[in-house]
Amino acid sequence: MSSAQAPCGRGLMLVHVKLVGLFKTGRFVQQDIICRDGTKIEELIERLELPLQHLGIILLNGLHTSSETVLKPKDSVVLMPFVDGG
Amino acid sequence: MNIQTTDPVSESAAVSYHRCIVDLHCGTKEFANVPCRNFEDVLGGFGRSFQELAQRQIDNAYCDENPLIINTGLLTGSTVMTALRTYFSGYSPIKGSKKGLPAAMWSTGSGKFGAKFKWTGLDELIFENRSEHPVYVVISESDSGPKVELKPAEHLLGLSTHDKIMALQKEYPDAHFAAIGPAGENWKNNYMGAVALSTENQLKSKEDKCRFAGRGGMGSLMGYKNVLALVAQSKDKVRKPSELVKAANLNVIKGGGSVRIQPLSRGGGGGTWAAYDVLQEFHAVPYNNFRPAGNDIPEKLFRENVEPDYHIQTEACYRCGIACHNNISEKNVDGNKGEFLAKFDYEPLNLLGTNIGIHNAGQAARLIQLGDNYGMDSISLGVTIAYVMAYNERHPEAPILNGARFGDYEKARDLIIRAGTGDCPDVGQGLMRLSEQLGETAYAYQVKGLELPAYQPESNPGYAWAIAGGHMSMGTYGLLTREGKSDLDSWVRGVTEDKLHIVGFDMIGLCKFFDIAKGIGTQMVVDCLKSEFNFDVTIADVRAAVRRAFLRGLALEMRQGYSKDEFRIPAETIDKPNPHIKLPNITSREFIDQLEKRVWEIFEPELEGILN
């Protein structure tokens, strides 16, 4: 995991990550994160140590996607828990 | 249940249930062991009660021929986790077709009443006719089998749901209770009466922590019959769970569908309240009568913004490891728990909070508590009040009722009290009637006479085919937001195959949090049926029974005069798409037309003859 100040290019890219609900507890609400080119969302989830059993919704640039999607520079990812019941 | 087979699917008559029919008019009781007609009868709940209702042609919910059926599911009272459900079924005073005929309906809740009822040895209680005087009914066990007694109940008249239960507990300290509130007593002017079910927590703490069978006005039907409360008196019959059931229970707690409902302290998602955070990301938290404005106001009721000022305690139903309740109390100056206010579930919190412009957690909690004490369905109540406020916003020159506008806590409170005491039929008789009377139905958020729960219809055109209200009888409410499905094929499959299976829980006696995503057609349920009853059934058997029961519900709706036009979400969501909701539009006229056409092409042939 790198901070937003780290240099990009040369195999690195910047993605914007937003965490919703319980995911933000002890982490952050939103942050720019530097990843290696070709990083999949599942790798990002692993690095953030999100509890997988709660992972319900992944939005990539506002659209639902799967954890296997490969990220591109400047992508915006939202990671949300499940929503159920009432 | 009397079980003489291992094959309840092809030998259903070898399973019988113990039924008592009480004629409230003359006080007679008829006990019988009734052979099951099919596997739905064996599973119980609405799977059985709707077959009874199908045998009757009822034109008015408040007539002597309309029964109130109280039953349990096959697993209610068993060692399987969440197996606490009681079902109340009858023709509904609030849900009905535009032809004026009442729809068949069931409502269900947890608490411990269902298990106690089952442990008396009775599986089903049917009330026929009505009592001339208010009564409560004691169901108890005896050496010769279950007993049912009618007792005078004048002393309970006018008491809140909680106070009725507290009064009865003094007389029956080893029992559990089901009670209506003043709303059900005022059934003529209140069609949204709920039935409160006592919990262990409530009886011990004396705090009003009931559970509710809220939907469809079954409490009003009970009030019409002049039955104010039920008492189930039996010894607890808790056995040691088998290894199969232990494994299922462990999966319910740690895996499966419930983990996200668990409290935050156990690594869970924090209950249904957590839906606020997720839906807000899409600007899809209902706000001011289901018109999210794309702002951050709903965030005021996020848990993190409530926690600093209120005491939040996570609690569970009897012997349930899920602990889904977030009980909110005042916080004393020393930071300790003060007066108990209410249980924060997503639906009541939103519909008596954000959706009526109330963004203060304490005020929302007070309104929830008030509705609970009067014994009203918080969904029907909140949505009807939201409509009154929306109407008044649109007609500032000629407001209705007390002129309530969004955010006016005192006037919302006043409407709840007046509806609960029967002094405000415009609210008490529900949204369909009020909006039709006012001639403004486009923004009336109801389908088929039942008010919508707190999931925007823009995200769920499947509401149209829910057979017992909103999201709990058609599980499509997460198909767009959670699963991201916006194509027609997924929605047709969702409505006609996968998501209708949510109703299976309302047959078998389990709470939906047992495995909300998969329903009861799972190996986990099959294992439990093998372990508890030595049944050899397959997943396919269970799914087939659930589908037949669902289709029977749909066929009953058609028989009660619903036209296909009534199977549609409110016009505003189709004609004026909300630009703030950040989800693909799946409620365009074209999409809806196509969805209706394809869904009916699948359902219609299956409905033929299903009521015979």
| CATH top level class name of chain A | Alpha Beta
- Quaternary structure: heterodimer
Runs of chain B with pLDDT <50, length 5+? none
Class from helix and strand fractions of chain A: mainly beta
* Topology of chain A as a string of helices (H) and strands (E): EEHEEE
The CATH topology name of chain A reads: Ubiquitin-like (UB roll)
CATH superfamily of the domain at 2-233 in chain B: Aldehyde ferredoxin oxidoreductase, N-terminal domain
Radius of gyration of chain B: 22 Å
What would you report as the Rg of chain A, rounded to the nearest angstrom? 13 Å
The fourth-level CATH homologous superfamily of chain A is Beta-grasp domain
Write the layout of secondary structure elements.
The complex is a heterodimer of chains A (86) and B (612).
Chain A (H helix, E strand, L loop, with lengths): L11 E8 L10 E7 L4 H8 L6 E6 L2 E2 L11 E6 L5
Parallel strand pairs in A: 1-5
Antiparallel strand pairs in A: 1-2, 3-4, 3-5
Chain B lengths: L1 E2 L11 E9 L5 E7 L3 H5 L2 H9 L13 E5 L13 E11 L5 E8 L3 H7 L4 E5 L6 E6 L6 E6 L8 H11 L3 E5 L2 H4 L9 E3 L2 H6 L5 E3 L4 H7 L2 E7 L9 H12 L20 H7 L21 H4 L3 E6 L9 E7 L5 E7 L2 H6 L9 H14 L3 H17 L14 H12 L4 H4 L2 H8 L7 E2 L2 E2 L36 H11 L6 H4 L14 H11 L5 H21 L11 H5 L13 H19 L5
Helix pairs in contact in B: 2-20, 8-19, 12-14, 17-22
